[in-house]
Each structure stands twice: as structure tokens, then as C-alpha cells.
């Protein structure tokens, strides 16, 4: 790969990352300003109802995200990713500026919350197009000889009412190699590492705890194997299995992390623990092409990732608006799914 091509790829990836960060900052900052928005855009008198209405408007943005992904994704396919991504940034900017310019409820009455919902619809529509568009943009710019490597890094801040705030860092990286390819199927092997850590252990259920698995250190190493095959013309399937090891450590945690009066100077603590053991994951996906563009699909997953055993079974019926050579489950197995951990999914 030439130095110029490498520089172009880096610029493309940097542009997609910066755009994604700005998009989601605009989308999420609404939540941090919820109390201010509630006081200004909803009827006074009942602060709780106003705050609930504010978060309802926040949720409206998520309802139109699938529509944004469909419409803007189609624009990216036909007009180019650059046009689609510029459109998402403009829509997000319009929605954010509109929220800043809307007069308060005391000035224009019920029109204030109506305009707020319109702004959130614009932001949600934009965010839906940004996620898929930026992912496709990065993948399309990746050099052919390095598409067998993947990685991700994440940071989250968690807060809520009557629960201690928490932060989380996580990262995932790996590689995969296609070692056999035939007309009836292909075999891929890989190596994967996943790690995460929370600032506080809030797995318990007393006042102030969060009730979710939040280790201070978690590490998983596994070796996945994946077979993607086809039987006759209408049935496609994939079988994924992995075996590895996982370990985590949890600090001791106070019974009442948000209430010093209840906790006291030397109050009760949940004990810390360190656990290590084997990790397994088995997954099957199958899709049968019915007449027309209908697909009947089924999936099954069993694993013991994190701190629990999980078994999932289900099926779906899908319709594609255009012809496809492969079913939705098998079309692009190397692009990250919503968890960001494809091609070998870690629950």
C-alpha cells in the first residue's frame, strides 16, 4: 500500500470518527440538560411531570433512528457516503440549534414542547443515518490486506436517580483468517481479546446500588471458529464456536454508596471477589429464502460470558425491498453489529 493511499485512509477514518463523536455529543447532551429543559419548555407546577415529559421527548429521538438509517443509508448507497454523512451532520446541527432557539413555554405556550419534539425527531433521524453510514465508510476505506483485523474502544458514564454514578472503559480487538473456501461454505478461525472495567462495583440491590455486573477488571481471551455454508439454493447457515478463558475482579462495595448516614463510618460492605474460569460460546444462525424476497430465519446462542450463563433462541421473518444474493444474516459478517464485536460476537 502506497504512503499516499495510507494517508488517505487515515484521513477518511479520522473524519468519520470526528463526525461520529460530534453527532452523538449533540444527541446525548440533551439528557444532561433535562432539568433545565423541563423548566423552560413544559407547563410549570409539577416538576416531576415536566421532567418525565422531557425524557419522553428524549425517547422520541430513538423511535425514528431506524427510519434515518434506511433513508440516509439509501442515499449513501446511491449518492455516496460523503453526501450522506454531510447530511447527517447538517440535520443534527439544525435540530440542536432549533432547541437553543425555541422560546420558553411561558412565551409561546404549547408550541414550545411541540417544537422540541420536532427537534428531537431531526436529531434521532440524523443519528440513525450516522451510525451505519460512518461504519460503512470506514470499512470501505480499509485496505484489502488489513480487513482481517478489528478493534474498538468505549467509554461510558452511567448515572441515575437514587443510584451511585459509575464510569466504564472497554475495548475489544482481534484478527480472523479464512482458511478454507469452497462453493458450499467457508471456514474462518480467529483470536479475540475483550476487556472492561468499572470505577465502582454496583452489582447489588440495596439503596444506592445499581444491580448490574460492574467488575473493576474483566478480561476475556478466546479463539473463535466460524463456518458459513449453503445447502442447495435456498438455505444458508452459520455455526460459530469459541473456547477461551475469562477472569474478573470486584472490589468490596458499601451497602449504601449514596447515603453516608445509612452507611456510617464503618458500615457493612459486600465482599470483593476474584473469579477465573473457562469461557465458551456456541451460536447457530440459519436463513431460508422463501418465494419473493422473504426470509425465514432462526438463531440459537449459548454462552457463559461475563458472570452468568445465557441461552437464547428465536426466529424472524424478513422482507427485503431489493434482490439480494445472500440472506441478511450472512451478507456482511465482518462489519460490527450493534455491540461492535463482530465477526465473532461476544454477548
Taken in chain order, the helices and strands follow as: HHHHHHHEEEEEEHEEEE
Lateral arrangement of strands in the main beta sheet = 1-2-3-4-5-8-9-10
Q: Could you tell me how far the N terminus lies from the C terminus, measured between alpha carbons in angstroms?
A: 35 Å
Helix content: 25-40%
The tally of strands reads 10
Sheet with most strands: 8 strands, antiparallel
Mean pLDDT: 82
Describe this structure as you would to a colleague.
There is one protein chain. Helix 1 packs parallel to helix 5. The two termini are 35 Å apart. Strands 1-2-3-4-5-8-9-10 form an eight-stranded antiparallel beta sheet, with no helix packed on it. The protein has a two-stranded antiparallel sheet with strand order 6-7. The C terminus is likely disordered. Strand 2 and strand 3 form a beta hairpin. The chain has two domains: 137 residues, Growth Hormone, Chain: A (Up-down Bundle); 171 residues, no CATH class. It is globular, with a radius of gyration of 24 Å. The relative contact order is 0.09. It is an alpha+beta fold and 347 residues long. It contains eight helices and ten strands.
Which secondary structure elements does this structure contain, and how are they paired or packed?
Blueprint: H1 3-32, H2 34-41, H3 47-63, H4 65-79, H5 81-101, H6 105-108, H7 111-141, E1 149-160, E2 163-182, E3 185-198, E4 217-231, E5 235-250, E6 253-254, H8 260-263, E7 269-270, E8 273-289, E9 294-303, E10 310-319
Helix pairs in contact: 1-5, 1-7, 2-3, 3-7, 4-5, 4-7, 5-7
